[in-house]
Design goal:
This protein is of the alpha+beta class and 243 residues long. Helix content is 18%, strand content 50%.
Length: 243
């Protein structure tokens, strides 16, 4: 019964992300052909926006008995397809990701979560985790407020090695079946090239902000989110089942 409920959500997310990434993900390459430090920096910024941990939810704690599992898809428009073309030999206009997410409520207002995703058009996979603490639980009259710490890492990315960690502060307020939320945060990423290319590691921090809305009906939930990380726009959709 669980898989029956989750299957149409997964199919919708796969279709959405594949549509977004059409014409770009099919040409995606993580192999460096012409090393250049500035191009490497531009590509690293795009990777950070595409692969970093997404909030995809409000600030309310899940509670000790709370549990969520679902699927998600995201699309990030790149800021420099020319840099991708010069560095990798492939012009990339956008980066997609499709994967699974899960979270579990803990005592004292804490929640723990994680995700695993694939980048369409490549062998790359991305995984990470979060620990969130609800400063305010929220009520009928007051919003919820939470702080979160995250870690993300990518694998099978050819000549690239990517990881990041971040923190954010979010606020949300439930209104009937909807829960609008917003937040601000900071992401620090490290992107390294294979040693044979003699490129310096790109290690930098960027501010981000995000807004979204979650819809819940019985056990089914869906979330739409927009994120601005550095100069990149990121659009995400999540759907799943909450217990």
């Amino acid at each position: 019964m669980f898989l029956t409920k989750l299957r149409p959500i997964t199919a919708a997310l796969l279709t959405l992300t594949a549509t977004f990434a059409a014409g770009s993900a099919s040409a995606l390459s993580f192999d460096i052909t012409t090393p250049n430090q500035q191009d490497f920096r531009s590509v690293a910024e795009d990777l950070t926006a595409a692969l970093d941990y997404k909030a995809l939810g409000g600030a309310e704690p899940g509670g000790v008995l709370g549990f969520y599992i679902g699927t998600y898809g995201s699309y990030t428009s790149t800021q420099s397809s020319d840099a991708w073309s010069r560095l990798t030999g492939k012009s990339v206009d956008g980066l997609g990701a499709v994967g699974l997410r899960a979270s579990k409520g803990l005592p004292f207002g804490f929640d723990v979560g994680g995700f695993y995703s694939r980048v369409p058009g490549s062998d790359a996979s991305v995984y990470g985790g979060e620990l969130r603490y609800a400063i305010l639980d929220g009520s009928v009259a007051t919003p919820a407020l939470a702080v979160r710490g995250t870690y993300t890492r990518a694998s099978n990315t050819g000549d690239f090695d990517y990881s990041s960690y971040g923190t954010d502060l979010s606020i949300s307020k439930g209104i009937l079946f909807l829960t609008p939320y917003a937040g601000i945060g900071y992401v620090h990423s490290d992107t390294k090239a294979a040693s044979s290319f003699a490129l310096d590691k790109e290690s930098f921090g960027q501010a981000k902000y995000f807004v979204g809305t979650s819809f819940s009906l019985l056990l089914i939930s869906a979330t739409l989110e927009y994120e601005r990380l550095g100069d990149n726009n990121v659009y995400s959709l999540k759907g799943g089942i909450t217990f």
